[in-house]
Specification:
The protein is built from five helices and no strands. With 104 residues, the protein is mainly alpha-helical. It has a domain at 41-56 and 65-90.
Amino acid sequence: MAYNRHTTHPQVGIRMAIGASPSDVFALIGGQGVRLVAAGLAVGLCIAIPLAGLLDRFLFSTAPRDVSTFTSAIAMLLCAGALAAMCPRGGPCASKPVVALRDE
């Protein structure tokens, strides 16, 4: 089955069929995406801090464990991930629940 704008996951169709509003479905899909991004950032931070000392010879104007550098990188990645999680949310809510349930 090819994905198009009106192809949705059955979970979305079921939630909309029992009365979930499109904003509830937006929150569900966007929240799951942002949680994945936050988990990835946490794991990456746990790996990056101990390994930052290995990059010391490549860094010229900053310390390996500079707090402002880590903070700005985390903020930029979190914003990019949140934007990426929000972009595909319109498709599932645009279709009718019957179409989503019939496809499955």
